[in-house]
Structure formats: structure tokens, C-alpha cells
Amino acid sequence: MSAKDRAEGHRRPRVIIIGGGFGGIAAAQGLRHANVDVLVIDRHNHYVFQPLLYQVASATLAPSDIAVPIRWYLRGQDNTEVLLGDVTTINPVARTVTVDGDREESYDFLVVAAGSRHAYFGHPEWERDAPGLKSLDDALEMRSRFLEAFERAEATEDEAEQRAWQTIVIVGGGPTGAELAGIMVLIARHALRRDFRRIDTTQTRVILVEGGPRVLPTMPEELSARALDDLRAMGVDVRVQTMVTEVTPTHVRLGDEVVETRTVFWAAGNQASALGRQVGPTDRVGRVLVEPDLSVAAHPEVFVVGDMAVTTQPNGRPVPGVAQGAMQGGRCAADNIVRTLERRARRPFRYQNRGDMATLGRHRAVADLPGGLRFGGTIAWLLWLFLHIAYLAGFRNRLIVLLEWGWEYLTWQRGVRLLPGRRSRA
Questions:
Q1: Residue 350: which H helix or E strand, with range?
Q2: Among the listed ranges 101-115, 216-230, 410-424, which one has the minimum average pLDDT value?
Q3: Please, what's the b/e burial string for 310-345 (b: 16 or more CB within 10 A of its CB; e: otherwise)?
Q4: In terms of domains, do 128 and 190 share one?
Q5: CATH of the domain at 177
């Protein structure tokens, strides 16, 4: 809004976007030329490229390599403000949101893109001993636990205790779990093998646990089978059709088997943000049941996108909770806000699958692309590298990540193997 408009008391429609992830940023960018005022609210000040969080968790990349300040990213949009805060309440009747418990902000349109957290299948107490990976804070916690495991193993003379510290269990055989397993076994067997004197890091045991019949279950069966073969060839102990029934500080129970371990990571299941329940009916994991245009039936000025919305593909299958789905949803919500203001009919959300990829290790990846193109190996790995660099925010991050990956490829070394200080899990 111009200074003249403010002086004359003119008011443009106000759009509040909750969440500065893929969906929220896409919605904000979709409104950059609209005659509206946009307020983006997030509890973090940064926009993070989530597909590479696992590389921060494994000490390959630094947090600043995959994240940029939201304010910086949206700095060219004169109609957009950014507020650092935690939305605690949404009142769709009054059209207000409450930030940090006491600050009230009003809206004409609302885009809820607050994402999801880990789901522990009725055992929230497991989170303390099995952290998940959804944010930079999660990645740093996981990195500390991963590196600390080797330090603790080196510090003890008890062989059983050493084995327990050098046993890493990853729960969930989707892309995050498979990529974590692949990179962690490579680090243990190559990057760390000359750094310790009392332990042999090449004997580190990485166990990947999947409750279903195959890893990467959303991919075609032939790619899942190839990924399974690749992981096992790299030394990952993959367990399919295996359920975790107990997680403690000293062990996990896989069915009836007890595995002594001090390091468990969670990559199974999602629970949508609790904010969804404040705007409309939800499914069993908290996702909001939305209309075809991504709005809420009782409140058509409220849109829900990304992991928080129940949406389907043209073939009737659910839209996967991946970056491309969130970005397309954010753009659709922004377009429908503009259409509403221009008194044009809204358009339904149509998800376009541009392909799924997962990388498991050096020269090992699988790709499922549009048109039935499915392949793995070096070509898929190179394509994964190129696309992930291309989608990073900012030239600096692209350059730094390219250099880090080049250095790691030539030397096997990871550049961010630093612990923040002596930690205690007690």
C-alpha cells in the first residue's frame, strides 16, 4: 500500500500466511503482484530446503548451506511483511490469529501451511530417545547424537557398550530413512575410519527398519527392489515387515528381538500441525478436509496447503507430502485468492507429479519420472545432485553446496563434524 493510500485511509485486503516452508513461501510469491497486503508468520526466521536436512543431520552440510532468512528471501516483495512468532490460536469466525499467546492479527484471507511433525503411533514418549527430522533444530540434534555415538564408543573400554554405541537404528524406510541410512553407513566406513584409535568405525552397524513390505513404498516396486539391493550392498541391515514395539535409552525392540543401541532416529509417520483442528474437520492424523480449491467448506476465505491438507491426485491417490505438492498447493491458494478478489471462479487444485527421486550413496540413486521413465545408478544420482542444487535458495548456497559435495566426493570427508559441547542424555 502506498503512503498516499494509508494517509487517505484506504485498506487493501490482508492475507496472513502461517508457515514459511515450501507451501507458505509459494503462496507469498504467488501474491507478489496482487493488490493485497501479505503477512507471513513463522516461529523460525528461516526458509529451509527440507530435502537436504538429512545432509545437515549427517554432518555433510552446515545449516546455513540449505537455509536463508525468510525476510531476505521475500525482500523484493513490497506488499509482504514477515513476523517471527508462534501462532497459538486461529479464530475463523472473527478472522483473527493470535501470535505468541497475546498478539492478535486480523485477516481477510488465511493460508495455513504450518506443516507436520513426527508421529510415534501412540508412543509420544519415544521422541526423547528417537528424534525425527523436520527442522534445522532436529537436524542439529540428530547430528550431535550421530557424532557423539562414536565419541562415546571411543571413551569406553567395555566391548558390549562400544557395540551398542556403534549400532544406529533408523525407523522408517521412506526417502528420509533410506537416505539417512545410506549416508551414515558411508560416513562410518569411510570418513571416520582413520580418526579413532580404540574403535573400528567400519564395524558400525546401521539398521533400517520398515514396517511395510518394501523400502521407498511410494515408488514403483522395481525401484524399491533396486534401492533395497543398493542399501544392503553398502552394508545397511535392512529389516522390512518389522515393527518397532519399544524404544528406550539403551535398546529398541524389533518384534521380539531386542537390539542394544544408544542411537535411534525416527523417519516414520507424520502428524499434521494441531492448528488444522481450529479451522475445520480433520482426518485421523490431523490433516484438514479441504474443498477442491483447497479452501475450508465452512470458511471459504481459509486455505490449507501442504502436509496439512487432505488432497488427491487425478488418479485418486493421495498427494504425497513432498515439496512439489506443497509448492503447487501454495501457488493454487494464492491464485484462488486473486480470482476471488477479481470475482472470477476459483480453480480446483490439480497436482502434477514431476517425479520422485532418492539418493542412497555415491553413484546410487533411483528416479521415477513422468512418462514412465524409471532408472537408477549414476545417471539418477547425477540428476538428483543437479536438481537439488538448482532448487536451493540463493546463488551462495548453490555454490557452497556444490563445493562441499565436490570436496566430499574427492576426499570422503565431511566438513561440519563439530559437536556444540559436552552433552548429556540423562
A1: none
A2: 410-424
A3: bbeeeeeeebbbbbbbbbbbbbbbbbbbbebbeeee
A4: yes
A5: 3.50.50.100
In order of 248, 320, 363, 377, the CA distances from 373 in angstroms are 43, 19, 18, 14
How far are the Cα atoms of 55, 124, 137, 159 from residue 424, in angstroms, in the given order? 24, 21, 17, 21
Helices (H), 98-240: 136-155, 159-165, 175-186, 221-234
d(CA 395, CA 37): 28
pLDDT tens for 324-349 read: 999 999 999 999 999 999 999 999 99
Helix residue ranges, H only, 323-393 = 323-341, 378-391
Amino acid type, 89? T
Residue 422 to residue 420: CA distance in whole angstroms: 7
Three-state DSSP class for residue 326 = helix
Q: How confident is the model at residue 321 (pLDDT cuts 50, 70, 90)?
A: confident
The tally of domains found in the chain comes to 2
Q: Please report whether residue 370 resides in a domain.
A: no
Q: Nearest CA to 41 among 118, 105, 134?
A: 105
Around Cβ 295, how many Cβ atoms within 10 Å?
24
Q: Examine residue 68 and state whether it is found in any structural domain, yes or no.
A: yes
β-strand partners of 401: none
Domain co-membership, 253 together with 332: no
| Listed residues 289, 311, 341: the one ending a domain | 341
pLDDT band at 417 (very low <50, low <70, confident <90, very high): confident
Spell 208-236 as b/e; 16+ CB within 10 A means b. Answer: bbbbeebbbebbeeebbebbbebbeebbb
Task: Note the pTM of the prediction, 2 decimals.
Answer: 0.91
Grid cell 525392540 — which residue?
253
Strand partners, 112: 18, 304
Check: CB of residue 74 under 8 Å from CB of residue 28: yes
Region for 102 from its dihedrals, namely left if φ exceeds 0, alpha if ψ lies in -120 to 50, beta otherwise? alpha
**Catalytic annotation, residues:** 179
Residue-number span of the structural domain to which 129 is assigned: 124-268
Strands 295-296 and 299-304 come out as antiparallel
Tell whether 236 is covered by a domain. yes
Considering the domain architecture, whether residues 261 and 176 belong to the same structural domain is answered as yes
Please give the backbone phi and psi of residue 165, each rounded to the nearest 5 degrees, phi first: -70, -30
Give the model's pLDDT for residue 8: 45
User: Same domain for 133 and 214?
Assistant: yes
